[in-house]
Amino acid sequence: MLTNQSKYEKYKPKKRFGQNFLVDDNIARKIVRSLEIEEGDLVVEIGPGQGALTKHLINETKNFIAVEIDRNVVAKLTGEGYNVVLKSFLDFDFESDLSFRKPGEKIKVIGNIPYNITSDILFKLLDSKVKIDSCVLMIQKEVAERLVAGISTKQYGILAVQFQALAEVKLMLNVPPTAFFPKPDVNSAVIRIKFGNGKYKVEDISVFKEFVRSAFSKRRKTLKNSLKDFFDKYGLKTEEFDLDFVRRAETLTVGEFVGLSNFVAGKILK
């Protein structure tokens, strides 16, 4: 009988796709349960690999689609009766690729995310937040800690501010390298992101994102320095703001970022 690891060795995970197959079945079940699938949900799985999560998903719902870039994996899973689309998730379209979606169905996303494109996937999900109910993702622990970081820490930055302002983010569990084949050089973690549950009202998301990126563009500098180009671009002056610009971006709370960006939006979008 094949062991949990030797079963995956014959598939030769591809480095160019960042493949590290999850081989711990207990963790796979926990991840699927964390998605809290309900009747009427449409589940999108990112990078199913050898089906570690998929085999548990089909016990929860038949209404799902997997997105996979590896042709060999697609052929294998399609042959086993799974609904798989061949493409990178970064090219996935929540409208055209889900044209079969029924009215009122909530979209929930799940996946063991390749480390090399984690940030790209996270920002794609954030950009698509109006279409998605929630996500449960396995990502590098370091990135997970940046998502849930508090102010005045080295992890606190663009990821933390944008996600905490526009969603509810929770670190669910830590996962050791031994849960994968091949074993990665880093620890992993499972996070849950719920959109539509944010406690802040952002007036203009594009202005908010640009403001946050600019504030952290020179994080060792004061806000007066890091926001200079942003202020010059829109003809803004520090005197218009109720803020001490000697502060650094990492000392501003998420609420302060939202309030300041809303003030900016009111100025430049008149």
Salient structural properties:
two-stranded antiparallel ribbon; 11 helices; 18% strand; Rossmann fold; Helicase, Ruva Protein, domain 3; 270 residues; 33% helix; elongated; 2 domains; alpha/beta
Layout of helices and strands:
Layout: H1 6-9, E1 21-22, H2 25-34, E2 41-46, H3 54-57, E3 64-68, H4 71-79, E4 84-86, E5 106-112, H5 118-127, E6 134-140, H6 141-147, H7 158-166, E7 167-175, E8 180-181, E9 188-195, H8 205-215, H9 223-226, H10 228-234, H11 254-268
Parallel strand pairs: 2-3, 2-5, 3-4, 5-6
Antiparallel strand pairs: 1-8, 6-9, 7-9
Helix pairs in contact: 7-11, 8-11
TL;DR of this structure?
The protein has 270 residues and is an alpha/beta fold. It contains eleven helices and nine strands. The protein has two domains: 190 residues, Vaccinia Virus protein VP39 (Rossmann fold, 3-Layer(aba) Sandwich); 64 residues, Helicase, Ruva Protein, domain 3 (Orthogonal Bundle).
